[in-house]
Amino acid sequence: MNRDAVLAAYDRQMRRNAAPEGPGARVEQVGGVVRQCGANADWSGWTGVLWSDLDEATAGPAIAAQISYFTAGGREFEWKLYAHDRPGDLAGRLQAAGFSPGDDETLMIAEASELSADAELPRGVRLREVTDPADVRLVTDVHEKAFGTDDPQLRARLRTQLAECPGSLAAVVVMAGEEPVCAARLELPPERSFAGLWGGGTVPGWRGRGLYRALVAYRVGVAVRRGYRYVQVDASSDSRPILQRLGFVPLSTTTPYTYRPRVRSFSGSASCR
């Protein structure tokens, strides 16, 4: 893999010319910044900066402009920073402006056709495709048990996506009897080369049995059948070694920087235009 060329293609397709995350979300380019507003009047869903091309002279004004824009109604937002973004001190500038960094993740990419699509599961469990919006609860039940958080916005977005844009999403659950024990999804943005692996999680008590690897393989098979050249994942420190053994290549790191306004009095008047 030509890492520089693939990273440049990823930045161009998935960040600079990003497709909206789901139904109702909007992406707009303003100067050297690409940002997304979540769906609906309250911007539910992911909201923040996807890409920027700044320098020492433009970084400060751009950061101030995004803070002003997103927080006009008391809305918090995220600046998704990659290690190769410019200028080199952008992380420090964001912190100085009041952003708080989250955990680092590793951007990992693989040629989909070069990965194994065999999904071997232990005896007594089965894969179940989630195609009915009502069954999204299976995915979010696993998410809550695996990560300890309930995310009603994710639940609403996945239901809407399956109902309105089913071709853009493939969700799958491992079932032990009637209990969901592992779940993940594959985002399939139209007219792009990269399919995204997201949300892979296994409930305690079922970890270490190959379920996560099986769902990676299953989703890779879907991506290949749908004509995607690459599969991409933002890997945690736990999943990175598994993905490297499967053939994924680390290309950069990404860190979420979150800005939380001091006064939260959202009026519902601000919107992406």
Automatic annotation (TrEMBL):
Family annotation (SUPFAM superfamilies): Acyl-CoA N-acyltransferases (Nat)
Ranges where the N-acetyltransferase domain occurs: 125-264
Gene3D superfamilies: 3.40.630.30
EC numbers on record: 2.3.-.-
Broadest EC class assigned to this enzyme: transferase
Keywords in alphabetical order: Acyltransferase, Transferase
Residues of the signal peptide: none
Gene Ontology MF terms in the entry: acyltransferase activity
Name assigned to this protein: GNAT family N-acetyltransferase
